[in-house]
Amino acid sequence: MDKGEVIGAVVRTRRNVQVVYISIGHRISLDSARTLTLACCRGYRLPETTRYAHKAASSKVPQNTPMIPTP
């Protein structure tokens, strides 16, 4: 809470995994942040965008590889 305003939430994206902390951002409400986070998880604990960024930063993805799989 910040001056009485709720600015974050704890979300469990699936059973038997650690929680994910989410917060409001520029022009996004907490409810929208929660909805988008859950929509981006696709069976994993972390949202896809976070997982891809972690892989890229950890050099687990070869250079010039598309980050988003094609259907």
Automatic annotation (TrEMBL):
A Pfam entry, by short name: Endonuclease_5
InterPro entries cross-referenced by the UniProt entry: Endonuclease-V
Main subcellular location: cytoplasm
Localization per Swiss-Prot or TrEMBL: Cytoplasm
Keywords assigned by UniProt, alphabetized: Cytoplasm, Endonuclease, Hydrolase, Nuclease
Assigned GO CC terms: cytoplasm
Any GO MF annotation of the entry: deoxyribonuclease V activity
GO biological process: DNA repair
Keyword rRNA-binding set for record: no
Keyword set includes Nuclease: yes
Protein name: Endonuclease V
Species per Swiss-Prot/TrEMBL record: Geodia barretti (Barrett's horny sponge)
The organism's taxonomic lineage, starting at the top: Eukaryota, Metazoa, Porifera, Demospongiae, Heteroscleromorpha
